[in-house]
Every structure is written in C-alpha cells, then in structure tokens.
C-alpha cells in the first residue's frame, strides 16, 4: 500500500494528498499517519512544498469530516435513537447510554471536536455527533480545522525532520495497527456474545 501512496503523491502531489486524506476520513482503515509520513518524506526529497502539503492534508481531512457531519445532521438524533432502541445491542449501546453521550457531547462539542481530531480512528467519527447535535457549521469547521492542522503538522514534520529513517518504522507501525484492529474486532465479538442472552429475552 505504501508504495502506491508514495507513487500517487509523486505524480499528483498536493491533489493526491488532498484526495488521500479525504478518503482516509471516509475509510478509516487507510491511516492518515502513513499518508502524512510519506508526504513528509516526499518533501525531504524536494518533490513538494512542506507548507502546501500540510495545508492540502488539512483541507482534505476537513472535507472528509464535513461529509460525516452532514451524515449526522441528515440522520438526526431522533432517528438514531429509534435505531439504538432496535439495534443498539449490536454495538453495545443502550438507549440510556446514547442519551448520556448525546447530552455530554452537546455540552462539550467544541472541545470534543478539537481534541477528537488528534485521536486515530476516533477523529473520523467525531464529526457524526457534531452533526447530530446540530453544532453550528462555522464552529464545527473552525475547531475541526484547528485540531486537524495541529495533528497533520506533528506527523508530517516528524517524518520531514527524520527523513528516510522514519520510513523504516512503517513495517512495525503497520503490524501494530493490524494487531490493534484484530483485538478491537475480537472485543466487539465478545461483547456481542455476552449481550446475546439479554437480547433473546427481549
């Protein structure tokens, strides 16, 4: 995967970074860390400008976040609550937990969006509750942009300053990511199995 991303960035530069970060926000299994790191290495080689690369990454990520915000707003809290009542057990979410989470997010939306943009995987879906509680678009975009810019800069310039040595860590990072993803799936399945008896009683 890394070689394809590297070649795409080499051929399409800023457009490639924008599109990859947009895709990463819609399809989380494509890690932004790899995209940003390869972009940083490309900047070391003089293929792209660091500032423009970070800006392209931030804007692409912002566009992806906007998509999930729109989804959350279209679905709405009432429709999602109805789904939680019927199918919430499949994701381990009760109606009470859903209501508590929604109230908490409504109260701390700005902080949650800002810091949420710096947490892998979570940063993708933090935009959905922002749409659910109808967070003001300008406020949402502002905090999303700020959090994304900081995160993108940290990862990009880490690769930029360490250069090609940073690339050697990809194999290890990839393996760790795969193990964590597998662990998440196993925990999810275990939770479903535990909740199944109560589901049958209902």
Structure, described:
This protein is mainly α and 202 residues long. It has one domain (2-201). Helix content is 83%, strand content 0%. It starts with a helix and ends with a helix.
List the helices and strands and how they pair.
Layout (H helix, E strand, L loop, with lengths): L1 H25 L5 H13 L5 H26 L1 H11 L7 H13 L1 H8 L5 H4 L1 H6 L4 H26 L1 H4 L2 H32 L1
Helix pairs in contact: 1-2, 1-3, 2-3, 2-9, 3-9, 4-5, 6-9
Gap between N and C termini: 45 Å
Structural class by SSE content = mainly alpha
Number of strands: 0
Helical segment tally? 11
Query: Helix proportion of residues, in percent?
Result: over 70%
Low-confidence stretches: none
Rounded radius of gyration (Å): 19 Å
Q: Give the total of domains.
A: 1
- Largest beta sheet, briefly? none
What pattern of helices and strands is seen along the backbone? HHHHHHHHHHH
Average pLDDT, all residues: 79
> Proportion of β residues?
under 5%
């Amino acid at each position: 995967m890394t070689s394809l991303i590297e070649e795409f960035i080499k051929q399409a530069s800023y457009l490639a970074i924008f599109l990859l970060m947009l895709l990463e926000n819609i399809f989380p299994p494509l890690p932004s860390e790899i995209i940003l790191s390869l972009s940083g290495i490309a900047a070391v080689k003089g293929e792209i400008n660091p500032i423009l690369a970070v800006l392209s990454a931030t804007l692409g990520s912002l566009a992806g976040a906007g998509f999930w915000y729109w989804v959350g707003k279209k679905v709405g809290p009432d429709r999602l609550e109805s789904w939680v009542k019927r199918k919430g057990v499949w994701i381990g979410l009760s109606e009470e937990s859903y209501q508590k989470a929604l109230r908490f997010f409504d109260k701390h939306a700005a902080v949650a969006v800002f810091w949420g943009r710096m947490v892998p995987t979570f940063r993708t879906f933090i935009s959905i509750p922002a749409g659910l509680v109808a967070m003001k678009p300008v406020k949402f975009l502002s905090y999303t942009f700020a959090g994304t810019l900081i995160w993108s800069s940290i990862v990009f310039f880490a690769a930029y300053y360490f250069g090609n040595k940073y690339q050697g860590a990809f194999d290890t990072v990839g393996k760790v990511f795969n193990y964590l993803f597998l662990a998440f799936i196993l925990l999810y399945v275990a939770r479903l199995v535990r909740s199944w008896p109560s589901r049958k009683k209902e």
